[in-house]
Amino acid sequence: MKKAIFIGAIGCGKTTLIQRLDKLKLTYNKTQTLEFYSNIIDTPGEYVEHRAMYSNLMTSAIDADVVVLMQSATDPRVVLPTGFSTMFTKPTVGIVTKIDVATPKQINLVNDRLKDAGASQVFQVSAVTGKNVAKFTKYLQS
């Protein structure tokens, strides 16, 4: 299985998706520091929301096989700037989260934002309902 680093804003659903992938009980936990799961590195949202912390992301991604950029479909902000993925030397994919509570227009907007940030492929998932989680799991296993 590919080792992934999850990068995204505060509250975008990184930890919830990890809990779903690892078949753990879904509980809200605010990630305060780097957390390591089976094959996933969970980063605090502050690392992406404060440019001064970008170096933490670059350093943390060294051990990963793939960079996973994540953004909630309900968050219309430009969280990840154009070409964000160029700071990494790893393949980069995107995940639009919270598709169960978003409109198609919101999902498409965030999908385009992730592509603009450098995601070569984008998955649209709901960690709460499990929708499309198997597709992402298959990607990690390939």
From TrEMBL:
It comes from the Bacteria. The keyword Nucleotide-binding applies. Keywords: Nucleotide-binding. It holds the Pfam family PduV-EutP. CDD domains: Ras_like_GTPase. Gene3D superfamilies: P-loop containing nucleotide triphosphate hydrolases. Belongs to the EutP/PduV family. This is Ethanolamine utilization protein EutP. It comes from Lentilactobacillus fungorum. The lineage of its organism: Bacteria, Bacillati, Bacillota, Bacilli, Lactobacillales.
